[in-house]
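Q: I'm writing up a methods section and want to include an example of the input and output format. Could you take the sequence below and give the corresponding predicted structure tokens, formatted cleanly so I can copy it straight into the document?
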Amino acid sequence: MSDRLKGKVALVTGGASGIGRATCLLFAREGAKVVVADRNQPGGTETVRLIHQKAGEAHFVQVDTSNATQVEGMVRQTVERFGRLDVLLTAAAILIITPPLAESSERDWDMTMDIDLKGVFLSMKYAIPEMLRGGGGSIINISSVSGIRGNVGSVAYGVAKAGIIHLTTIAAEQYTAKGIRVNCVAPGPVDTPQMRGSTGSTEEFRRVEASVPMKRAARPEELANAILFLASDESSYVSGVTFSVDGGQRAAAK
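A: Here is the clean output for your methods example:
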């Protein structure tokens, strides 16, 4: 299929790499005008270049999603550039490996909560009014299996990702009847620069892959395919769900 997002405007936070970049490229191939938002200007600019290379429409906005003024500006620039906002993907996140809770630092907790949870809240806060003005839309938030099962390697990350699931549920309850579908994707291990950096070594990365029933990490493009379904009208009767894309991890959990 093609043109599943034809005529739609999509805003993607964390679009400079990983799941965000893969989704930006897929959205553009499916006809969307894409705003690539990220703190990483070189990476975000490269995502836009890749979209332009395939004759797609895209624009980069540099943003710190934990800053309300910058997030409000990000949404405003999206509407000024393309006239509306139909799809929001909140993929911006950090993962800081931490010691056990009693030894974890307040700094790591605050930084993770600011970017991974507050950033999602702010993005939704400023995107929703524009979607309401346009007659509706679709919001997809990126959580993690760590938000479902916990993450002993990063206390703050697991809690933030659990918060995203509940934030999704609450927003869906409040806005589905007004035409905005709000859903969540919970990935397992994904082969991204962030995951490879957080595992710290090829050996540890392979160990994590071996823990997945499919015996591999996902490709970012596999997450993008699931996100596209939730962004498109194919999921017109879906709101308030958390969609696990984890290679069978959740099913295999003891």
